[in-house]
Amino acid sequence: MIKLSRISKEDIEKILNAALEFADGKVCKAKSDVFVSNLFFEDSTRTRVSFEVAERKLGLHVIPFDVQTSSVNKGESLYDTIKTIESIGIDLAVIRHSKDRYYDELIDADLALINAGDGIGHHPSQSLLDLMTIKQEFGSFEGLTVGIVGDVKHSRVANSDADALRRLGAKVHFSGPEDWFGQGEMMNGTYRNLDHLIPEADVIMLLRIQHERHSSEMQISDYLNKYGMTKEREKRMKPGAIIMHPAPINRGVEIDSDLVECERSRIFKQMENGVYARMAILKDALEKKGFEFEEIKK
Ligand code: CP
């Protein structure tokens, strides 16, 4: 799985339903030996750890790959690294890389590939766990209003989520600092003033300021009041509306620290769902390669 835009609406629904079944306690194990490796060329906590938990829950053999101590440090290219682990017997690789579209150079690889985030491109497993969290909450996407707020320009999460949400029937609006939106970067969503959007939205999805992708130092002292989830804005949200954030969170910047675990917040639920969404993604990718799973518990 490289990006959600390559996946049909029906297949997205199928993976979401599988993820929800895993959340309800379904247990599946691989019927044969399957070797997987997680290659993180960029930092991660949630994605890396939850992929590994998901892999172990599915009975896959997880072969450690530490970029810092690998031959990448001797100059080995991404392509040669992937061809190497494929030759050694790895059946599936999960890859995060700072380079946009790093996967283009891996088109000839035979092993299954899962994109765990490419530059400011896409983050499909985050999108699926976000979609799963919304579906768990509201049952469907039709007619929902979702506000994606913050550093849209540098966010691979915004990119992946906006497209999928629209295809599934939700209305997507963007908010945040206007000069972080350029021509053509609003992904067919409309830009809205945050204070107008807040009382209409069913979901407010806050984005982390991607300090590592900004060329100059950010002035963040006034960000919370101007563009963040303050206590006053939370009070003006619709009954039943929820707050999401892919994390890591800049507490007191994108969201008041006291709201991170408030009743409306689904931030830690998103992380929990990340394991189930990734189990469904891994199973789907491996089944497409001919591997079989047995159902141990419905
Ligand atoms: N949301 C997310 O991708 O978190 P990590 O960078 O910790 O994996």
TrEMBL record:
EC number: 2.1.3.2
Gene Ontology terms, MF aspect: aspartate carbamoyltransferase activity
Keyword terms, alphabetized: Pyrimidine biosynthesis, Transferase
Aspartate/ornithine carbamoyltransferase carbamoyl-P binding domain location: 2-136
Iron-sulfur recorded as keyword: no
Catalysed conversion reaction: carbamoyl phosphate + L-aspartate = N-carbamoyl-L-aspartate + phosphate + H(+)
Pfam families per the UniProt record, alphabetical: OTCace, OTCace_N
Origin: domain of life: Bacteria
Enzyme class: transferase
Positions contributing to carbamoyl phosphate binding: 46-47, 96, 123, 126, 247-248
UniProt pathway annotation: Pyrimidine metabolism; UMP biosynthesis via de novo pathway; (S)-dihydroorotate from bicarbonate: step 2/3
Signal peptide boundaries: none
Quaternary data: Heterododecamer (2C3:3R2) of six catalytic PyrB chains organized as two trimers (C3), and six regulatory PyrI chains organized as three dimers (R2).
Family the entry assigns: Belongs to the aspartate/ornithine carbamoyltransferase superfamily. ATCase family.
Function: Catalyzes the condensation of carbamoyl phosphate and aspartate to form carbamoyl aspartate and inorganic phosphate, the committed step in the de novo pyrimidine nucleotide biosynthesis pathway.
Name the UniProt record assigns to this protein: Aspartate carbamoyltransferase
